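Practice problem: predict the structure.
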Amino acid sequence: MTGFLSIFNVDSDTFSNAAMTEDEINQIVADSGCDSTQEKVIRFALLKVGHPFSQ
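Answer:
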């Protein structure tokens, strides 16, 4: 997950970020050393990066 937080930009005391590319997601998954179930969870979560959060 090295570099994961680098996708976040601090702007006026708020955090904003851009959607991740497929290559960025693939690199994070490759570096994680996870099994197939964990990979599905990581990919799902990373695909949500950049989407608004709502409870």
